[in-house]
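USER: Note each token:
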Amino acid sequence: MFTGIIEEVGHVKDIEVTGGKRRVIIACEKILEQLKLGDSVSVSGVCLTAVDITNQSFSADLAGETWARTSLSRLHSGAIVNLELPLRASGRLDGHIVQGHVDGTGTLVSLAKVRGANDYLLTFNVPSELTRYIVAKGSLAVEGISLTVAGIEGVTVTMAIIPHTAEVTNLNSLRPGDPLNLEVDVIAKYVEKMMAGRIAQASITVEKLVREGF
């Protein structure tokens, strides 16, 4: 489990392709002090497993499904990625619960400075099937970053980005049209499932009335 609080930005050193299998090599510094072989690490919101670690980088294998369904498919040598190690049981939950399981990819519209301020406004489109989990003031992980929704209209989501977040994440390296990894708040999905069960139990059908003798 992660929190969406980015610990470091790394950059892609290389992507090795062997027999249809992909291995990404990511150069970084800070997280290597704690990272061990087999550990999980969030790479721009995707939970990957460290399979090789050196003094300057770590490697992770990318399944075909991961490559096809996440923004990692846009990676190239030199690309910037957000990195986070899993939350320790004794740690502080600064962001929100992030599993590293991407629910879908959005499309960046813009990241623009707010006129007369240092803040930014992040605008992007999301898959229509995810909109039911996204609410104003709610949490949404974007590229592994725990962010708060400022507004949603149709499939377009806006978020206020403070200068610190823009500086310590990969957001400034992205361009309009780039895919964004999205993970909705898992609590919303659990609530939906529980409510669906209650509605199903409470619904009245002809078959139920017949069984009850009406």
User: Anything to note?
Assistant: The longest helix spans residues 186-202.
